[in-house]
Amino acid sequence: MLSRFSSRRHFDDLSEQEVLALAISSEEDDALIYRTFAQRLRDDFPASAAVFDGMAEEEDGHRHRLIELHRARFGEVIPLIRREHVSGYHARSPVWLDPDLGLDRIRGIARQMENAAGSFYAAAARRTTDARTRDLLGSLAAAEAGHVQKADRLEAEHLTADAREAEDQSAHRQFVLTWVQPGLAGLMDGSVSTLAPIFATAFATRDPWTTFLVGAAASIGAGISMGFTEVASDDGVISGRGSAWKRGVATGVMTTLGGMGHALPYLIPDFWTATTIALIVVFVELWAIVWIQNRYMQTPFLRATFQVVLGGALVFAAGALIGAG
């Protein structure tokens, strides 16, 4: 009843010809998506690009066989019907339009595409009582399952251990450049630069609430400033550091968190309790920075410790002395 007033047809209401036409258009769309992935990966990940080229060719082969079946059963004119015209058909969010998709995300999307299509066709085949339609949908389900197996064979052919290791290293490097490095810069700025104003206010006023307000203002203001500075300073095209907005979000959020970490304890009314907890938080923040530098930036542990802990101690001492004076 409701389908009469909807602009979309339900899958169960489609004729066998329309189901076949839908399968043809779906195979065509999937081939185009795989070619898009291959084009994006070709420069940095040539082995994975070859895998997606092969998957696109496999989709083309199935589409040609489906067209031949349609020609034999229904003639030359294929109805124009696509997945967005059908209610209940497996919908796909156009995530491939995102120019900053990582290699692992692209691989995951491809596998989801094949698994979803195969599961849908298999379920549709089980629901129908018409022998020819059941055979058609079952064949499509088998074809989609074959695509997954074909993708595995292509990965085994093109993605040797050395090729996969090289591509994984490249993907890790991009992750570090886009997320870790900007986030680390923000955490360092938020944790260290706010030490002086927060503890100067704390020792000057001995008022936890005033200290919290100053700390929150300094942290949020620094986060906004650092985030927009990162976005405006480098669009990532020449440097290869990735999306400016992703880097800006990483920098801004981590800057704010770095400052708020030792501002939040001053919500405790007792001054010395709040100060003690704030100092513990500062200690954890500084050692977290050291760990991130050592883990992701390959900075020697002792050098990172000297730079971060000594720098933080000097900034804290400056703030405490100014506030006490």
Task: Give me a quick take on this structure.
The chain crosses the membrane at residues 274-292, 304-324. InterPro entries: Ferritin-like, Ferritin-like_SF, Rr_diiron-bd_dom, UCP035918_rubreryth/DUF125. The chain contains ten helices and two strands.
How is the topology of this model organized?
Elements: E1 9-10, H1 16-41, H2 46-74, E2 86-87, H3 103-127, H4 131-158, H5 161-193, H6 195-205, H7 208-233, H8 244-261, H9 271-296, H10 301-324
Parallel strand pairs: 1-2
Helix pairs in contact: 1-2, 1-3, 1-4, 2-4, 3-4, 5-7, 5-8, 5-9, 5-10, 6-7, 6-10, 7-8, 9-10
Transmembrane segments: 274-292, 304-324
GO molecular function: metal ion binding; oxidoreductase activity
Domain Rubrerythrin diiron-binding: 18-154
Q: Could you walk me through the main structural features you see in this protein, from its secondary elements to its overall organization?
A:
By secondary structure, the protein is mostly helical. The protein folds into 2 domains: 2-159, Ferritin, CATH 1.20.1260.10; 171-324, no CATH class. It is built from 10 helices and 2 strands; from the N terminus they run βααβαααααααα. It has helices at 16-41, 46-74, 103-127, 131-158, 161-193, 195-205, 208-233, 244-261, 271-296, 301-324; strands at residues 9-10, 86-87. Strands 1-2 form a two-stranded parallel sheet. Helix 6 (195-205) runs parallel beside helix 10. The longest helix is centred in the middle third of the chain and has 33 residues, at 161-193. The radius of gyration is 29 Å and the shape is elongated. Mean pLDDT is 79; it is low at 1-5.
